[in-house]
Amino acid sequence: MIVFMLGALAVAPLDNSGSPATLSACSSLRASAVVAEMSGLPESIQGQMKQMVPDLAPAGAKFQRGDVIVEAGLPTRRFVGAVEGKYSWVVTYEHTQGSVHHFHAIVFGRAPAGDYAPVPHGALAGPLCQIVDAALSGALSADHF
To answer: What does pTM read for this prediction?
Structure first.
């Protein structure tokens, strides 16, 4: 299955504080709907995320924030959180290329057998709350998989 990237990158100055991004900042989400740890996701999604984004730090952990290696061995991406929709999950992570910090989301739809699979055209990049809202809106047919 091919997953395409849609949307524009959010350009933000590099934040050297290392403070984690959070989905709780998105006003459209209920705090109870947010999963803050990868372990809170269905096992099938956890396994697929490890294959699709193998270099992923846990939420809040240190990660490589740019092209200049400050601390060797750090992952290049960091899990932000996930949100469960009616028939889908939206999994978000962040990373920095050069000095451009941005967010990605991958939408996993529930298949008839009950497992989850990445939704075609369900990989998004852009401002965190906007990509989560877009994914949950059904615009990608994620909730109709």
So the answer is: 0.78
